[in-house]
Amino acid sequence: MATNSEVVHSVEDEAYEPQTYNDAFPALEAARDVSNVQQQGAWQSQTGAWKHPTVRSIKCTQVFSVPLEERRFKEMDDRLFGDETEQTKICKDIMSKTGVSIEISMAKDQSLTVVVHGKGDAVMKARREVMTRLQTQANTIVSIPKEHHRYILGKSGKKLQELELSTATKINIPRPDENSDSIKIVGPKEGIDKAKHEIQLISAEQAKLGFERLPILKIFHPFVCGPNNQIIKTLMEETNAKINVPPPSVMKDEIVVSGEKEGVIKCKDTLMNIYEEKKKKCQTVSVEVRKSQHKYIIGPRAAGLHEILGATGVSVEVPPSDSTSETITLRGEQEKLGPALTMVYSKANSVVFNDVVAPAWLHRYVIGRKGANIKKISEDYSKVHIEFVENQDKITIEGPPEEVDEAVKALQKYVDDLKSRMTFAEITVDQKFHKHIIGKSGSNITKIKNSTGVSIQIPSDDEKSNVIRIEGNPEGVEEAKKQLHEMSTRMENEKSRDITIEQRFHKTIIGAKGENIKEIRDKFNQVQITFPEAGKKSAVVTLRGPKNDVDRSYKYLQHYHTELLESNYQAEVHIFKGFHKNIIGKGGANIRKIRDETDTKIDLPSENSDSDVILITGKRENVENAKSQIEVIQKELANIKEVTVEIPSNLHNSIIGAKGRLIRAIMEECGGVIIRFPPEGTSSDKVMIRGPKEDVENAKKQLMEMASEKKLSGFTAEVQAKAQYHKFLIGRGGANIRKVRESTGARIIFPTSSDKDQETISIIGTKESVEMAQKELEGLIKNLDNIAESEMNVDPKHHRHFVSRRGEVLRQIGEEYGGVTVSFPRSGVKSDKVVIKGPKECIEGAKKKIQEIVNDLDSQITVDCVIPQKYHRTVMGSGGQNVKNVCSKFNVGIKFPDKPIANGGMAENEENIPNGESNGTDESDTEKNHKNDVIVLTGTPENCKAAEQELQALVPITEEVSVPYDYHRFIIGQKGRDVRKMMQDFDVNISIPPAEENSNTIRITGPPANVEQAIESMKERVVQLDKEKEDRDLRSFELTIDVNPEHHPKIIGRRGMVISRIRQDHGVNIQFPDRGDADQRLIKIVGYEKSANAAKDDIMKIVDELESMVTETIKLDRRIHPRIIGAKGRGIRKITEDYKVDLRFPRPEDSDPDQVTISGPEEGVADCKDHLLNIEEEFLQDALDQEYLKDLQKPSRHDNKNQNRGGPPQPGFMVKDAPWDKAPDTASTDEFPSFGAVNAPKAAQVWGPMRKR
Q1: Coil, strand, or helix at residue 494?
Q2: 1205, pLDDT greater than 50
Q3: pLDDT grade, residue 547 (50/70/90)?
Q4: How many CA atoms lie within 13 A of 486 on its CB side?
Q5: Of all helices (H) and strands (E), which one includes residue 880?
Q6: Which uninterrupted H or E stretch holds 1001?
Q7: Whole-angstrom Cα distance, residue 654 to residue 713?
């Protein structure tokens, strides 16, 4: 067998391989330069860039009129303005169907003018629809000969459709099986005339044409057509008629002639004369010829038959290819049959067949590399066709007898030679091991092929076969078989093991860009680690490889998982939603402090979320610490109390209720307190209640009552009631339901808004009390179900109040009183009657509510509130929010004057007035307030007065704050974010002077209270900025140290790890000199003075260590450098770690490529030097041995063959590696990596033998 240095000749070099797809179909050139294209049309812009032509949709407009007498809708009805007419509805329907626009106008003579605009086809369809549906329809019948109907229809009826569109008519043509020539036309009079004219023109044109169907037997068609159809071609050119002869596959005894009548008659006479003559003179003779020889008689495209017909005038009839008959019939004149028969036998015997016996697996070797062998035979015997039959042990040769014999001899020679020196073997290996035998990128299988020189064929996954085939020389086949057996035996000893790791940790284990999992895989390089796909919610990770390595990796990952569990413990803490902003703190100060102190991750719900749960993640003790700190903040902010009550654990489920309904009802009724039961499965009786003090006491009382009830009886019942009845059953302030509870002693729980079932009411208590409460509730519900109707009188002046804002007041009444329906008179009807429908009990309540509202409206007054119009926008607030708040708070109506002046603007002839000052105008002028300054308030006297005071308090003032100019950019923030936030928080306007003014004054405008709060916040911000400035000054201390540039790389460390650690430890910035700097020795340190000196000390320690090291240069053969460095530098890293030294290899531009420098402690340098020299000595000895063995070996047969042949001939047109040949290897972890794995991109490759070029 081959040694490591020997290149073994592979049988793959002899086997046939098609040329590659890329060779056969090379890639196109880059896009041509269009800069030289002539600058014309729209194909090139002025800049020289290619410009695509714009495709525009073509639109058109058609205008037509409908006379009064033909209009379908003539009536002039009394519809109100804006009401839709029938013809308007029709036009809308047509527009929606066709996508056009239609405009209709009426002339003085009552005729309609219709304008249709849109795309061409759509306009035609719309025009037809309009005329059909808006114009009265007439009809007429026109008689057209039956044989002309198909020309009116056109191909697939298209001509008829076009005619109907252009004339806006409906044309009915009789069916082919109907014996009628009448065509009916329906439509407007104008369209009918046009359609009738067009149909008559088509009929007149067809009347001029002739059509003949000639009864000529199929067997005489060749004589009538002539050799190569020469006779009918000549006739068609002379007469311009069309002659249709059925193809050979259609068995019809006819020929059809059509065209001008004169031409048709001439063709008919000529063809029928030929037919009659041949019918009289022709005789037949039949001969038997082997079926396989028929194709040689026929020839390509029936050329052989035409040749015999042209030479002898005899027609040769050959049975179809799907027939088993071998009889060939010759038809012609008696004296010409003999020569024709001679030509038939000559053509039939011009080709012979022969077979060469060759095993099917040898076929590709017979073909040769790139088809070389078979191409040589084809070139030597050009008339021979060689066919390789798949899965058959033979090669078929076809051609002239003399050449076939020679080709058989040449092929037999190749086959005998291959049989003498090649064999094959098949081994059975479980298919699941095939991908491992192939190896990463085919490395394993390629190694075996190279060492043994054989071809190995491994079945694809689709074949589902366990058989691997080996072909080649006998020694190589045996060796390859042995190696494959060893590999399969070794793989059978492998094991697969699953480990459960929570899915949330998968990304952490994989790491950013797969860095973490790569380290784990490098550590256990024999183990394949497979994570579940991202879409599958699975926690199972699969390990596969040698048993010992799998067990070691399993323990490692198990330990890693345990550490992750410890550091990712999660706990939830319920904090009242209103306190979340206090937990976060100003600028996130509180939450950041808790995170830093406890080293935990704290997630708060979004503002839009209804959840009050804060999630804490980290180590268990840290999480508990953070949780207690957050709860302490809540207790400090409010009167939060936490109590524990003991309730037997066997009652917990019944108290919680189905889907938590009962306990949720208590929590909501008691102001949202938090009630925590012990985890399910524990025997603890302790239940924790936390919340405001009064609510906690109330919840505790209810829990204990419920527990007592459960102990006594625990009886439960349910009552169904419509959701709109619940408010009435509960009553105002809970009066009704409280009455039921007190009279029966049962507990009644209504569904909350979050419950899916909104109709089920639960009753809890003793059996007697539950039955009594159920009876009372059912009675109340029955009364609510009895719908009644009642009326009341409401002054019409108040109707608008009830129905305005889309009936908001009526909707509220309906919701509050069991879904009653309140109907006010329609607009324009003078009536004061209001109808109320609903349950009797609810009607009375609704009546009282309406009367209360009416009384309130009667007692309302109107008050004028005078506020200068320039402040109206500010008073209104964003989106009118301020006004809405005042209206809802004091139950008043507020109306502002029209056309308000922009905020801050001044009315005409008005001057700006400082806060609290007067401009000295006369009192008489002051009393005459402009009507645009008056805001009208409507409501009760006391409410109007309070609302007026509230509005006056919203009138803005302007105050000035002095802020140093240097701080303005910090006040504004990035893109104005900070100043915008301050304006939103305090609802004020903040004006910061432009930069060119260099002013310290900032103006704040808004309501007095808001302005005062904004000023305080601004002052706090200035104090904070002062502190930050002072801190920046302290951090800007600068220190410079002088260090030999040779030591800089060591101070920086591998990937900057050393210098990054120093920077992080001391919080300083360390800058090394750039390559172009004059002084390369200076290192600059910037930061706090104390930190900078500490960083300097750390750097000088490193320098002292480096200066105490020794450096030695040795000579190492350059060929061994890659072996020392190792794959991805692993070898050199191991040496530097083992001996604590630094190795520097020569650069390409260095004069001595063998020189290696070792730096480090004296003892380490000496040991490392000995180690490197030993490696060099071993390498050189191996190299000498390989060269000696190579000299002893004789040249390979492959080399001799290449020298004799002078290189392989050019390949034929066959391709390999085409896109359709490449099936993805889904089992490959490189092409389809495990979840999170990162693999370097590789070129796609088809499995197969290695190609030697």
Answers
A1: coil
A2: no
A3: confident
A4: 8
A5: none
A6: strand 1001-1006
A7: 12
pLDDT bucket at 356, cuts 50 / 70 / 90: confident
Q: Which residues contact 793 (CB under 8 A, 6 or more apart)?
A: 832, 833, 834
pLDDT in tens, 101-137: 998 888 777 788 889 999 888 888 888 888 888 877 7
3-class secondary structure, 1074: coil
Q: How far is CA 541 from CA 497, 500, 538, 544, in A?
A: 9, 6, 8, 10
Query: Residue 1219's Cα: distance from chain center in Å?
Result: 26
Q: How many residues does the chain have?
A: 1253
Summarize the confidence of residues 710-724 as an average pLDDT. 73
Please, where are the H alpha helices in 920-999?
923-927, 941-952, 968-972, 977-986
d(CA 991, CA 228): 98
Cβ pair 969, 888 in contact under 8 A: no
Q: What are phi and psi of 498, to 5 degrees?
A: -105, 140
pLDDT in tens, 222-260: 988 998 889 889 988 888 888 888 887 778 888 888 888
Q: For 600-604, which contacts have Cβ atoms below 8 Å and span 24 or more sequence positions?
A: 600/626, 602/626, 602/630, 604/580
Residue for token pair 């302790």: 686
Coil/strand/helix, residue 290:
coil
CA–CA separation, 275 and 391 (whole Å): 52
Tokens of 617: 């993640």
Q: What is the residue whose two structure tokens read 């979340």?
A: 580
Whether 340 and 312 have beta carbons less than 8 Å apart is answered as yes
Beta strands in 465-623 (DSSP E): 467-472, 495-500, 528-530, 540-545, 569-574, 601-603, 613-618
Dist CA 1212 CA 19 (whole Å): 8
- Give all strands (DSSP E) within 122-180, no chain letters: 138-143, 170-172
Interatomic CA distance for residues 1139 and 1169, integer angstroms? 10
d(CA 374, CA 916): 112
Contact between residue 718 and residue 762 where contact means Cβ atoms under 8 Å apart: yes
| Beta-carbon count within 10 A of 163 CB | 20
Closest CA to 109 of 81, 74, 78: 74
* Strand residues in 492-589 grouped as ranges (E): 495-500, 528-530, 540-545, 569-574
Predicted pLDDT at 925: 45
- Partners of 644 in the β-ladder: 688
| Long-range residue pairs from 680-684, CB within 8 A, at least 24 positions apart, any chain | 682/649, 683/649, 684/649
Q: Does residue 139 carry a pLDDT above 50?
A: yes
d(CA 576, CA 584): 13
Q: Is the pLDDT of residue 1202 over 60?
A: no
Picking from 764, 757, 748, 758, the residue whose alpha carbon sits closest to that of residue 716 is 764
Cβ atoms within 10 A of the Cβ of 1153, count?
13
Going by pLDDT thresholds of 50, 70 and 90, the confidence category of residue 533 is confident
The β-bridge partners of 357 are: 394
How distant, in Å, are the alpha carbons of 156, 175, 196, 1207 from that of 182?
Answer: 21, 11, 12, 83
Beta bridge partners of 171: 185
- The two three-digit tokens of residue 44, written as one number: 């090139």
Distance CA 427, CA 467 (A): 6
Mean pLDDT, the chain, integer: 79
Give the rounded distance of the alpha carbon of 385 from its chain centre. 54
Q: What is the pTM of this model?
A: 0.31
CA–CA separation, 771 vs 765, rounded Å? 9
Query: How many Å apart are CA 1095 and CA 1070, to the nearest integer?
Result: 9
Q: Which helix (H) or strand (E) holds 424?
A: strand 423-428
Q: Which two tokens stand for residue 556?
A: 């490692």
pLDDT tens, position by position, 1161-1181: 888 888 898 888 888 888 887
The string of DSSP codes covering 771-800 is: HHHHHHHHHHHHHHHSEEEEEEE--GGGHH
